[in-house]
């Protein structure tokens, strides 16, 4: 199982591609303030990679930093979730 790799700018091309493809609509690659490290997790008995990141979300109350996680297996992003609640990001 090969972990997602960062590019020279510190971003993860696989995750950037997922965002550009519209897998989530709440934020874009330009909104990401920090790309985290890759960790291996087992979810429902399936080994996968988790990449945490922080992005800026602008709301009616102003900008907020939001922590998200992308779960990756076999070179594909399986899902994007809010790290704290575990809810799927729209």
Structural class computed from helices and strand pairing: mainly beta
Give me the count of strands: 4
The separation of the N and C termini measures 27 Å
List SSEs in N-to-C order. HEEEE
Beta-strand level of the residues, as a percent range? over 45%
Low-pLDDT stretches = none
Please tell me the total number of domains: 1
Overall shape: globular
Strand line-up across the major sheet: 1-2-3-4
Assembly of the depicted chains: single chain
Radius of gyration: 13 Å
- How many strands, which pairing sense, and closed or not: the largest β-sheet? 4 strands, antiparallel
Task: Tally the helices.
Answer: 1
What does this structure look like?
There is one protein chain. Strands 1-2-3-4 form a four-stranded antiparallel β-sheet. The mean pLDDT is 97. It is built from one helix and four strands; from the N terminus they run αββββ. It is globular and about 40 Å long. The chain is mostly beta strands and 90 residues long.
Summed up:
With 90 residues, this protein is mainly beta.
Structural descriptors:
4-stranded antiparallel beta sheet, mainly beta, about 10% helix, about 90 residues
List the helices and strands and how they pair.
Layout: H1 13-20, E1 32-43, E2 46-59, E3 62-73, E4 76-82
Antiparallel strand pairs: 1-2, 2-3, 3-4
């Amino acid at each position: 199982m090969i972990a997602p790799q960062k590019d020279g700018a510190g971003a993860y091309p696989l995750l950037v591609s997922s965002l550009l493809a519209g897998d989530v609509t709440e934020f874009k690659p330009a909104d990401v303030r920090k790309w985290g490290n890759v960790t291996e997790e087992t979810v429902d008995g399936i080994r996968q990679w988790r990449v945490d990141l922080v992005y800026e979300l602008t709301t009616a109350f102003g900008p907020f930093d939001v922590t998200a996680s992308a779960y990756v297996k076999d070179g594909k992003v399986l899902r994007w979730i809010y790290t704290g609640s575990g809810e799927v990001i729209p």
